[in-house]
Design a protein that fits this description.
The chain is of the alpha+beta class and 183 residues long. The chain has two helices and ten strands, in the order αβββββαβββββ. The protein has one domain: Beta Barrel (Porin), CATH 2.40.160.20. Keywords: Signal.
Length: 183
């Protein structure tokens, strides 16, 4: 099982590195790659955004989690990036935790919906990855398990205060509110 996890981690890092170099190359070709003011490959400002937020998952007894991802340009109106999340909760004297590792894909619908205001973005997102689940029990018999695959979907929006910071909201497999930073 440990070898399988190592292969998955290696694959995710390889994909992330490949997409990073592709996204940077595409940015140069498109005059900034998707920035609203750059004349890039769409009318959205998601490329090179670091997104962090608080999440509640419907399946974990309403627990609050932390989630972060970074967006690279994938194609016209699409971004992808590595994603990590952490949540913990308590139930009947058991302390549970969940660490999610994967990728988050976003399709920005600004061009299709003709959203031209530079402060707003609308998107659909999908998540793929795996979870490390564990518990800490009072008698000291701790357990850890790994999920083979985790999928999630959602819709969301971003409001940009300026080119460097804004708010985001996502509803879907969970609910997320957070901030994003343009890097």
């Amino acid at each position: 099982m440990k070898t399988k996890i190592n292969y998955i981690l290696f694959l995710l890092m390889l994909i992330g590195a490949s997409l990073s170099s592709y996204g940077q190359d595409d940015d140069k070709k498109n005059g900034g790659g998707g920035g609203k003011s750059s004349g890039g490959s769409g009318n959205y400002a998601g490329v090179n955004n670091f997104n962090v937020g608080l999440v509640t998952y419907w399946s974990h007894s309403g627990s609050i989690a932390f989630q972060a991802d970074y967006e690279f340009n994938l194609a016209r109106d699409f971004t992808v990036g590595p994603s990590v999340s952490y949540s913990s909760w308590k139930n009947n004297n058991y302390n549970y935790y969940n660490i999610g590792l994967g990728a988050r894909f976003r399709w920005y619908a600004d061009r299709v919906l003709n959203i031209t205001h530079p402060k707003w973005d609308v998107f659909a997102n999908g998540d793929i990855g795996f979870n490390i689940n564990g518990n800490n029990v009072p008698d000291g018999q701790n357990a850890t398990s790994y999920s083979a695959l985790w999928l999630g979907i959602g819709i969301g929006g971003k409001f940009h205060f300026n080119e460097k910071i804004g708010l985001q909201l996502i509803i879907g497999s969970g609910a997320q509110i957070g901030i994003h930073f343009g890097l």
